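Exercise 7.
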Amino acid sequence: MGGTAFVGRHIAQAAIDAGHDVTLFHRGRTGADLFPGATHLLGDRNSNRDLAALGSGQWDATVDVCGYLPRQVRALAGVLDGRGGHQLFISSTSVYRTPVAAGFSEDAPLIELAEPIARELTLETYGGLKVACERAAAELHGAGTTVIRPSYVIGPHDYSGRFPWWVNRIARGGEVLAPGGAGDPIQVIDARDMASWAVSLLANSVPGIFHAASPPPPFGFGELLEAIAARVAPPGTTLTWVGKDYLLASGLDDSALPLWPGGDSERDINAASPAAALATGLAPRPLRQSIGEIREAGLQSPAPIPDGVGLAPEREAGLLAGWAGH
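Solution. The predicted structure, written as tokens, is:
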């Protein structure tokens, strides 16, 4: 379901690379020229009428990367009517109720939305709606369902611009504003590694719930920025750590400073245990390798950073100057 943007695109590629026949159901707005050997079915899952292209056919497995509302999950199950094979649902570590201890496993307490469950996707309802989607998938498809809960997903074709912004910013060099504390927890997963592992779970009919997160905790935002600097920073680049309270008082959040866990009340979810996933074959590549490949992909095919993501140079300079005199 999807398969032409970011996470789904890499899963589709991994499945094709593994020799599978792939069908992509998407709206045709992006990636229509991708994967010419795949079958492309057009429609919009937000309208039950537009699921008609899935009304016939038989598949060994279905991967749902864009289910955000329980009604979407139920509508898909309804139209497939048992013809979709092994179900894999891409969820999120945002499903957990915080606070939660570092190294938490997949059985940690989940967010519980009040009934009736919200019908609108917002930042506040995202995690709870993902919980509801997971439960709908398990109810409709049974105990054999596979659920992957990723942390921040990085890699080529990342349209969010969050991780690429840091790579590009540190690659420019100079004095870089590093937000909060170096020990603020953070985890990422390369979309390509998650994709190849997801395909192997399906090929081997592995059910269960798994975190897709790396590195294992403890791992801090400082280590992440240092890894980026070690791979792309020009000589003379420095990281200046600026206090959380100063940044929040200045109106900064995790959009202006993408991925910054210090500005997030749910920062605990950035310290998940990946043990279950590693035991079933998840093999994250070295972080510095991902960074280098993301930088190279960005240089070959530059993608605009979305509006509102990251700091403008003059804003960063002003904050650094204010912090120096703080």
